Amino acid sequence: MIYKETGQYKSSYKSDHAIFPLLQDKIAFSTLMFVAFLIIPLIINSYWEKAILVPFLIFSLAAIGLNILTGYCGQVSLGTGGFMAVGAFSTYKIMTYFPDMNIMIIILISGLITAAVGIIFGLPSLRIKGFYLAVATLASQFFLVWLFNKVPWFYNYSDTGQITVSERTMFGVPVTGAEAPSYATYLFCLVLVVVLSFAAKNLIRSKMGRSWMAIRDMDIAAEIIGVPPLKTKLSAFAISSFYIGVAGALYFAVFLGAIEVTESFDIMTISFPVLFMIIIGGLGSMLGSFLGAAFVVTLPIGLKFLMVDMVGLSAVTAKHFEITIWGLLMIVFLIVEPHGLARLWSIAKEKLRRWPFPY
Amino acid sequence: MSVELLNFIETVLNGLMSGVMYSLVALGFVLIFKASGVFNFAQGVFALFAALTLVGYQTGQVPFAHLINELFGTNYHNWYASMPNFFAILLTMITMIALAWIIERLVLKHLVNQDPIILFMATIGLAFALEGVGDLMWGSDVKVLDVGIPSGGSIWLEEATIGLAAEGSDYYGMYVDVLNIWATVIAVILVVSLALFSQYTKTGRALRAVADDHQAALSVGISLRSIWILVWAISGFIAMVAGIMWGTESGVQFSLSLIALKALPVLILGGFTSIPGAIIGGLLIGVGEKLAEIYIGGYFETGALENWFAYVMALVFLLFRPQGLFGDKIIERV
Q: How far is B308 from chain A (nearest CA, A)?
C-alpha cells in the first residue's frame, strides 16, 4: 500500500524516462535532499562532519567511480588507492602553481588528470581479463604510490614527504584548511557528490552506459553486435578514474588536510575497503554505492563504541577484535546476500507494495 | 673471470634464491585455484598465522592471553617454557589442517556456485578475520622465530669463489645467505614430494581429477568436499613452510602477510593454474628484481624499485601471453 505504483500513468516519453518515475520515489528523494541541504548544515558539528558525513560523501564518490568500472563495465580494479592519490597530488600541485584558482575548478581538473592516468593504466584491459587484470591493476597501485613517495617534485621537496593543504574559499567561506567550518566542508562535498552522481546516473542510462553493460555481460558478443571494446573499456576507465580522482582530491583537500601517501592511500586502507563497499552495496547499482559507503564508514565507529566504551577493552585488543569482526562480517554478508544491500532494498520495496495486506 | 661477471653471477644466484621464497607462497595460491577455483587472497595471512602459531607453541604462550587478562583481570602468560621444534611444527600442522576444515565448513560450503569475484572478496574477509584472530590469540608484538635453520652468509662459498677473480683484483667472494640455500633445498623437496603425491597416490589422482573438471570428478564418485579440505590443508602446510622461512629471515610480524602481494605477480607471470609456472615465475621475478635493483636502480636516485618492478615485469609478459607463461589457454565461446 505504501509503495504502490497503481494509477501513476505515463503519458509522454519524457515522464517514462524520468530518473525517479514513481511519485513515492520523488517525495522520498526531495525529502532527502531537503534534509541534506537545509537541515543538516544547521545542526552539523565537528564530530559528525569529520567522523561520518564527509568521509561518507567522499567514499560514496569513490564507490560510484569503482562501480562504473567494476559493476557496470565488469573490469575488476584493485588500484583505487593509487588513483585517489593521483587526484590528491594533482590538487596539491595545481594549488601551488595557481594560488588564485577556484578550489572547485582545481578539484575538477584533478579529476581530469586522474582520468588521463586511468586511460594509460586501462590499456592492459584490452588484452587481459578477469583476475589477471585485477592483479595487473595492482601494478598501478604500487607504481603510483611509489612515484608519489619517491619523487620529491610531487611533494615540493618537503622534508617529511607530507603534503599539506592551504586555505581556499568558496563565496568567502573557507572550505579547505584547519579554519574551515563544518557546514562549509560538508556542503562543498555534498554539492559535488549530488551533481556528479546525477551525471553518473544519466551516463549509465545513455548509449555509453549500455555499451559498458554489454561488454560486462559478454564482451565477445558485444563486439560482434558493434560495440567497440577499445572505446568502451577505456571510456569506463577514464570516467571511473575521474570520479575516483575527485574523491581523492576531496579526501586530501577537504577531509584530511595533510597526508602521507604510503599511509593514506594504502591498498588496505583504500583499495579493498572501496571494493568491499561496492560489493556489499551491490555491484552495478548507484544506490548500492551509497549504501555500501555508509555501511563501511559507520561500522568501525559502531564497533569501537561497542568494545571500548561498553565492554571496556583496551584500544589495541579492540582494534584486533575490529579486524576480526570486520572480516567475519564480510564473509557472512557475502554468504547471506551476495547481491548486496541494494538487493535487500528492492526486496523491501516488493514487500512494501503489498503491506499490510499480503493477499 | 672478471669481477663484473662474478658480481653478475652472484646477483643472479641471490635472485634465484629469493625467487624460491616467492614461489613457495605462489604454490599455495596455485593449488587452491586449481582445485576449487578460489583465488585465495588469504594465503599470505595463512603464512603469518602459521608462523605465529608455531612461535606460540614453541614458547608456550597461552592463547588469547591478552583478551582473558583484560576481561577477567587475571595474569596468564605461559603454560611452559619451551617445546621441542619437532612437536611444535607437528602441532602447527594439525592446527592448519583444523583451520582448513573450519574454512570449508563455515565459508566455502556456503559459497559454492558464486561468482569468482564474490569468492575472492570472501577470502579477503578471511584474511582480515584470520589476521585479527592471530593477533588476539598470540599478541601483535614482533616475535623471533628459530627452528634451528642456520642463517648468515655462507663462508664456504665466499672462500671458494674468492680465488675465481683475476689475481690482484678487489674481490671478496660471493655472499649467499645459508638460510636461502636451505629454503631452496626445502622447496625442492616440497615440490618433488607434491609431484610424487599427485602422480602416484589415489588421493593425488583424485586431486588432479577435481582440478581438471569438477563435474566429471563428482560423477565418478570423488568427494569434492574432502578434496577441498585436503587442498586447503596442503596449502596451509605450504604456507607454514613459507611462514617459517620468511619468519626466520625477518621476524614474525604483520608485514609477513604482505608476502601475498609479492606472490601475485609471480602468479600472473606463471599462470594461475600451473605449478611449474609458479616455480619458474618466482625464479624469473626473483632474478629480474635483483638485476633491476642493481643495473636499473642506479639511474633512479630514489631506489626501492622492488615494490612495483615485479608487477610491471609481469604486465609486460602478459601483453604477449594473456594467460601467463604456463597457464591453460583461455578459450572463449559465445
A: 5
* d(C-alpha B323, C-alpha A317), whole Å: 43
For A336, counting Cβ atoms within 10 Å of its Cβ (0-12 exposed, 13-18 middle, 19+ buried), the class is: exposed
> Which residues, at least 6 apart from A196, have a Cβ–Cβ distance to it below 8 Å?
A61, A64, A243, A246
B252 grid coordinates: 614474525
Chain A residue closest in CA terms to B305? A146
Q: Is A145's pLDDT higher than 90? A: no
Residues in Cβ contact with A182 at an 8 Å cutoff, skipping those fewer than 6 apart: A44, A45, A46, A48, A49, A50
Residue of A123, A144, A146 best to disrupt the B interface, most CBs of B under 10 A: A146
For residue A163, give the H/E element and its range: strand A163-164
> Which residue in the set B272, B311, B318 is minimally distant from A138, CB to CB?
B311
**Segments making up each domain of chain A, as ranges:** 47-354
Please tell me the least confidently modeled range out of A90-104, A187-201, A256-270, B41-55: A256-270
Rounded CA-CA distance A266/A80 in Å is 9
> How far is A32 from A34, CA to CA, in rounded Å?
5
Helix (H) or strand (E) holding B331: none
- Residue B18 CA, distance from chain mean position: 11
User: Residue ranges of the domains in chain B?
Assistant: 3-263
The answer to whether the beta carbons of residues B121 and A279 sit under 8 Å apart is yes
pLDDT tens digit sequence for A345-355: 888 888 887 77
Per residue in B15-25, pLDDT tens?
888 888 888 88
C-alpha cell of residue B315: 604486465
Q: What is residue A90's predicted lDDT score, i.e. its pLDDT?
A: 92
Q: What is the amino acid identity at position A133?
A: L
Is the bond preceding residue A356 a cis peptide, omega within 30 degrees? yes
Please report, for chain A, how many H helices and E strands are present, in that order: 17, 4
Enter the C-alpha cell of residue B201.
597416490
pLDDT (0 to 100) of residue A240:
94
Out of 1.10.3470, 3.40.710, 1.10.287, 1.20.1260, which CATH number does the structure's domain A47-354 have? 1.10.3470
ipTM, two decimals: 0.81
| Candidate from A136, A218, A311 with C-beta closest to B268 | A136
Q: What cell numbers appear for A5 in the block?
A: 505504483
Furthest CA-CA distance within chain A? 71
The beta-carbon neighbor of B140 closest among A136, A224, A320 is A320
The crossing angle, in degrees rounded to 10, of helices B3-36 and B178-200 is 40
Q: Residue B10 CB: number of other CB atoms within 10 A?
A: 18
Residue B168 Rama label (left phi>0; alpha psi -120 to 50; beta): left
Residues of A with CB below 8 A from B71's CB?
311, 313
Q: How far apart are CA A218 and CA A229, in angstroms?
A: 11
Residue of A nearest to B109 (CA): A335
Tell me the residue length of chain A.
359
- Determine whether the interchain pair A136/B302 forms a contact, defined as Cβ–Cβ distance below 8 Å: no
**B181-204 pLDDT, tens per residue?**
888 888 888 888 888 887 888 888
Contact A128 B318 (CB under 8 A): yes
> Which residue type sits at B204?
G
**In this predicted model, which residue has the larger pLDDT, B282 or B36?**
B282
pTM: 0.86
Residue owning grid cell 576507465: A237
Look at A313 and B120 and tell me if their CB atoms are within 8 Å: no
Q: What does B99-135 look like in DSSP terms, one character per residue?
A: HHHHHHHHTGGGGTT--HHHHHHHHHHHHHHHHHHHH
